[in-house]
Amino acid sequence: MNIQSQVDLWFDDYNRRAAARLDAVPALRGLYEPVYYTISQHGKQLRPTLMLCGNQLFGGNPDDVREAAIGIELFHNFTLIHDDLMDKSPLRRGLPTVYSKWNANTAILSGDAMFSLAWQQMIAHQHTATPQVLQCFNQTATLVYEGQQYDMDFENLPQVSLDQYLEMIKLKTAVLLAGALKIGALYAGADANEIELLYQTGIDMGLAFQLQDDLLDAYGNTATLGKQTAQDIRDNKKTYLYIKALSLADNTQKEQLKTIFTHQDKSEAEMQQVLDIYSQLGIRQQTEKAIVEHTEQALSSLSKINTDEKRKDVLHNLITSLLNREK
Amino acid sequence: MNIQSQVDLWFDDYNRRAAARLDAVPALRGLYEPVYYTISQHGKQLRPTLMLCGNQLFGGNPDDVREAAIGIELFHNFTLIHDDLMDKSPLRRGLPTVYSKWNANTAILSGDAMFSLAWQQMIAHQHTATPQVLQCFNQTATLVYEGQQYDMDFENLPQVSLDQYLEMIKLKTAVLLAGALKIGALYAGADANEIELLYQTGIDMGLAFQLQDDLLDAYGNTATLGKQTAQDIRDNKKTYLYIKALSLADNTQKEQLKTIFTHQDKSEAEMQQVLDIYSQLGIRQQTEKAIVEHTEQALSSLSKINTDEKRKDVLHNLITSLLNREK
Q: Is B142 within 8 Å of A108 when comparing Cβ atoms?
């Protein structure tokens, strides 16, 4: 069975049991319905897919990652519930966020409950790798919060460097992709050296992935994305595009960008002006170049891993396919 | 060394290291300072104390519970940070809550980070009991959220029965005390039967503890408690006192109570009227009676545990001392 089909089957089964539990304890619907609402939306399931990839890369047994694959997706979705509340985001995947569909308290508490459901998955499987898996999982969670903290801090900083930005998205996004790969490899009993190379593969893949997200926000298709485009500009988010633009802009453009990025409610003309400056500076091409670089870096790390070359195909294809994704 | 001194030493050491880490990464102060602010306040540390009690009851090695004892207190404090935000509580232990000292987003994210620090403690120690300990810890966390969900749901219910209320405080408060005792006993290798009796001890102790909290809110001393008294009445909280009063009130008293408990801003006269009705119905004595009953129930379960009788003294004294606590 291919990796995506296997992951889909696992989630179908999990969602079926989650729906049954929801019906079994109606008094707790308020707590668990937002969890079910979120996990049953079938996001990209990139992290579980990566975990199974990491496992198969070293000839592991898929059964070993079954629980943890769902656990890492539950964790990821829990962070989205809390992040959407903190960022006051109304939409995700074309649907209202938990915060906007219910309320702030529901987003807080159902998010917390979802994290415990994630842990339930992570501790369910007894394996010689379990202590290392739990360390990796918890360490990753901590780094993700640190990334979110930097992201929120950046809103109040007058200036953010490209290096600071890359460090932030590394923590907020890339470490979880890298952690998913690593946990899969740990369950397959891979050597520390190979795991380190795989982790680096995940980091660069994650950086490329987030830069692609930044790009899609400005240049993607609303219907495909399931959310409004150019939301980052509207929200004055200091994305790669904005920081790169500032670093290349002349004084007039810099003044214009900075001024518009102090406005809470932007006119359509102002939105267009930002996109025009991006266009004058070739920001789209610059970002695409950075995405290609990190993708090549990821593939280079992957190529150095000592394992059956044939087994690398799935991950190789996954990494290159992210280059062309539209959502 | 006595149990309280041992717990104090562990926390002194943990807090010293936490303070050093805070200084080492100034860029992450925004995330970790609220964690340090909360944990260094030295709450009652009842849960770590109970964990060590549960361990010593079966002749365990204190070193085995060192990490988990701090972990359970970190978890408890994380739930307080999120609860205070959800309840919009300005004060705890005489100090501003994280939510009011910083802001909502800080309370959410630093709370999440604190939960990961709790897990860091829980997974730090490798022991044959570790899988059971982690199951117990995570199951307990889930039940605590379910309790908080019921608590929030109760605000919007026209009527809550005493049984519903006791189930809610069992989940929100008692299971964590019981879980602390159980984890201590697991690390000491106690038998399942004895652990079950100890868990029941913890549940009844926890119920008595929460009823005492309800009582202290209405009749305690502001300075001793570190928060305003009668806050539950002010907040229209359906506590044991209120539910018991409704169950004993005549129609006139019932109308008065229900009407006053719809008002968001109560006059001093209304506050006094509630306390007068409580007084007419002997609510203070009724609550004290329930506290004594659960305390006796806890002591009865403790007495049935098969272990060296001398070892029971510490827990026995702790349970009875809670009867007379003033904060």
A: no
Question: Tell me: the pLDDT tens digits for B75-121?
Answer: 999 999 999 999 998 988 889 999 999 999 999 999 999 999 999 99
Spell out which chain A residues touch chain B, with contact meaning CB-CB distance below 8 angstroms.
27-28, 30-31, 82, 85-86, 104-105, 108-109, 112-113, 115-117, 119-120, 123, 126, 130-131, 134-135, 138, 141-142, 145-146, 148-150, 152-153
Cα–Cα nearest to A234, from A89, A123, A130, A114: A89
Q: Does the pLDDT value for residue A167 go beyond 90? A: yes
Considering CB atoms only, which of B105, B112, B149 is closest to A31?
Answer: B149
Greater confidence, A44 or A82?
Answer: A82
Partners of residue B141 in chain A, C-beta under 8 Å? 116, 119
CA dist list (Å): A146 to A179, A222, B14, B290: 15, 30, 21, 46
Residue A289 has a pLDDT of: 96
ipTM of predicted complex: 0.94
Amino acid at A36: Y
Measured distance CA(A324)–CA(A318) in Å, rounded: 10
For residue A84, give the chain B residue with the closest CA. Answer: B105
Residue of B85, B116, B149 lying closest to A28 (CB–CB): B149
Q: pLDDT digits over A112-137, tens only?
A: 999 999 999 999 999 999 999 999 99
What are the tens digits of pLDDT across the range B203-242? 999 999 999 999 998 988 766 666 667 888 988 899 999 9
| A92 DSSP β-pair partners | A95
- Cβ-based neighbours of A252, under 8 Å, separated by 6 or more: none
Select from A28, A102, A112 the residue whose CB has the most chain B CBs within 10 Å, as the one to mutate to test that interface. Answer: A112
CB pairs under 8 A between A and B: 93
Which chain A positions have a beta carbon within 8 Å of B28's beta carbon? 146, 149
CA distance A210 to chain B (A): 21
Q: How far is B167 from chain A (nearest CA, A)?
A: 12
Phi, psi dihedral angles at A313 (to 5 degrees): -55, -45
pLDDT surpassing 70 at residue B171: yes
Q: What distance in Å separates residue B250's CA from the closest CA in chain A? A: 30
Domain borders along chain A are 3-323
CA dihedral B183, B184, B188, B190 (to 10 degrees): -60
Class of residue A74 by CB neighbours under 10 A (exposed 0-12, middle 13-18, buried 19+): buried
Q: Which pLDDT value is given to residue A228?
A: 65
Closest to B146 (Cβ–Cβ): which among A31, A119, A138?
A31
* Least Cα separation, residue B269 to chain A (angstroms): 32
pLDDT tier for residue B327 given thresholds of 50, 70 and 90: confident
DSSP string across A62-113: HHHHHHHHHHHHHHHHHHHHHHHHHHT--EETTEE-HHHHS-HHHHHHHHHH
Q: A323 to chain B, minimum CA–CA distance in Å?
A: 31
Distance CA A136, CA A114 (A): 19
Please give the residue of chain A at the shortest CA–CA distance from B118.
A138
Q: What is the pLDDT of residues B19-59, one digit of tens each?
A: 999 999 999 999 999 999 999 988 789 999 999 999 999 99
Q: Options 1.10.600.10, 1.20.1290.10, 3.90.780.10, 3.10.100.10; which CATH number does A3-323 get?
A: 1.10.600.10
